[in-house]
Design brief:
The structure is a homohexamer. Chain A is mainly α. Chain A has three helices and no strands. Chain A has helices spanning 17-35, 39-49, 53-73. The interface between D and E is medium-sized, with 28 and 34 residues.
């Protein structure tokens, strides 16, 4: 496992739902980064999945799952 | 990551369950948009997945996961 | 997004668990309908996935996720 | 949608965790049944997925998701 | 459905998180066993999926979902 | 099932969200390890999935699901 910061800022708390969505995207990407530390290889893979609708849908599911946790941590910004 | 608004209106709160479903769909689409900012490429992908039943089912799963969070944020509109 | 009613009756509340399952199925189908408004195309896809066991299993997962939300909204009909 | 009973006994309550697992399996199967009412076709599909490890794993995921709801409905049989 | 015990010991309660993980694995395997009662066929499938990284990842997802329920049933062993 | 420690340290509690993410990754890997005890085979599979974007996305989903449980166990480190 590469030496990657997995939670930017070290907290699941965000000021807004908008920032919570951005955090969910980052959380998902940092898992990819720690598993595949080679930046060129990650760029190569991104070119593949960003043009593949099935992979894009699967990527969206991952972010949705991460966001569920971030949203609960923030009590849904109520 | 493109400069895309990820949560329309900045809140998970909606007046009704109907609006909550619509928000869940938008949340899912905005993740796609921020990952693939090219509108023509998104249209190309949409033509593919909207005619592919396996992808349509996967897309429905993503919306269902997003909706679980939106519904919890609204205490299920009770 | 087509002009489709996404939550029949506008509420996640149902009288029974049986009706809750039926609602979960409808919720999943209405997401498909709003994404693919062409009824003939939906029928074509249904003929494909209803004879494909992998797609049937995936469809079942979608309904299970929708039902989790419906059941929570109804406090599990206790 | 075929006229299928979707929740056997009409309730998510079971006496034991063992019965809760059995209910989760039944719930998953009844969604398949209502989507594909032809018993011969369901048998044909079962022969396919029961010999395909990827489909068996996916089937297991569906049951796990259904069980999460059944278990919550029963307060985990505590 | 084969006559298989679906919940070893009849309870989701375990003394430790370690035992909870082991239970989650067993729960997932027992669903496979009740769906495919033929031990030789299960061994054949296991040889396939244990050497297939995509199936191994999917298997891990199933266990993660089962574990979420087991962990909640044990109040996370706090 | 190989004799593998499934929960490092025996607890879902971590001091920080950062450590919680690392634990989620480890939990996912230990399920793989107990299912496929051969280290060379795991390395072979890792070389495959770490260069396959679809598998990387699926791996990320598994970690996201594990993390949801770890985060709940830690009350989101609030």
């Amino acid at each position: 496992m590469a030496d990657v910061e997995l939670v930017p800022g070290g907290s699941l708390k965000t000021a807004t739902a908008e920032e919570g969505r951005a955090l969910a995207i980052k959380l998902a990407r940092l898992i990819i980064k720690t598993t595949q530390p080679d930046a060129d290889e990650r760029t190569r893979q991104r070119d593949i999945y960003s043009t593949d609708p099935a992979m894009m849908i699967a990527m969206g599911q991952t972010v949705a799952i991460e966001f569920a946790t971030v949203a609960a941590a923030n009590n849904y910004w109520l």
